[in-house]
Design a protein that fits this description.
The protein is of the alpha/beta class and about 250 residues long. The chain has 7 helices and 7 strands; from the N terminus they run αβαβαβαβαβαβαβ. The chain has one domain (about 1-245): NAD(P)-binding Rossmann-like Domain (Rossmann fold, 3-Layer(aba) Sandwich).
């Protein structure tokens, strides 16, 4: 009996997310892809979505080769109908969603002086970086409340904590996400649901931002994935509300 208990204890430490279904938006590339691989390595069945079907298929096949349970669906998380179909499919095929990582985001059109920006650019940034979080969170929260447990991790940015020339719409979207995340945390903590926000600096991905960066002076996607794993494996009686993630070398 002692040996069995020890084995189970080791398994729970080695795979702390075993059986906890994780849904990751924007999961086909970059930060979302790195998060998917990290959480799968910790035992979580993974639901992925993205708009690039080819990249989504490639990522799903690579994840499946590790032995993880995977569901990958093309979805536009700025569209409520797509979101509802995504959540229903994930819960039907993988099980109740225990972890939501709102990672989908963009910088395309979000940088430059505000007076040079268009309504279409405003809508594109706000819908992708903010409205999507509202849609996907709203779809999974009722089930989490019913089960009195769950983790929601919103991927924000240090641009949600600072202002700078040319930040305009992108900064606005991330500052709004900070406010939304904080209010969600207060709304949901009484139901056993933990809401955290991660604020990385510049990350070496193909993210459409302010131009190329020196890769030796920026974060990697795996750095962000590590922070997500840290948040999700925090002791059950507490939660890490906000993480600021910076490279050691200053850009």
């Amino acid at each position: 009996m002692t040996a069995i208990n020890n084995a189970n204890s080791f398994s729970s430490v080695a795979l702390p997310l075993a059986g906890r279904v994780a849904l990751i938006t924007g999961g086909s590339r970059g930060i979302g892809r790195a998060i998917a691989f990290r959480l799968a390595a910790l035992g979580a069945p993974i639901g992925l979505c993205g708009r690039d079907e080819e990249k989504l298929t490639i990522t799903a096949k690579e994840l499946e080769s590790t032995g993880a349970r995977i569901l990958a669906l093309r979805a536009d998380v700025t569209c409520e109908g797509d979101v509802l179909s995504l959540v229903q499919a994930a819960e039907k095929q993988l099980g109740p969603i225990s972890v939501l990582v709102n990672n989908a985001g963009t910088g395309r059109g979000g940088f430059g002086p505000v007076h040079e920006k268009s309504e279409a650019e405003w809508d594109h940034i706000m819908n992708t970086n903010l409205k999507s979080v509202f849609f996907v969170s709203r779809a999974v929260i009722p089930g989490m409340i019913q089960r009195r447990s769950g983790d929601i991790v919103n991927i924000s940015s240090l641009a949600g904590k600072n202002t700078f020339a040319g930040g305009s719409i992108y900064c606005a979207s991330k500052w709004a996400l900070q406010g939304l995340s904080g209010c969600m945390a207060e709304d949901l903590r009484a139901h056993g649901i933990r809401v955290s926000v991660i604020c990385p600096g510049s990350v070496a991905t193909d993210f459409m931002g302010r131009g190329p960066k020196d890769a030796s002076k920026v974060l990697s996607a795996e750095d962000v994935a590590h922070a997500v794993a840290m948040v999700l494996t925090q002791g059950a009686q507490s939660f890490i509300s906000e993480v600021h993630l910076r490279p050691v070398a200053k850009p």
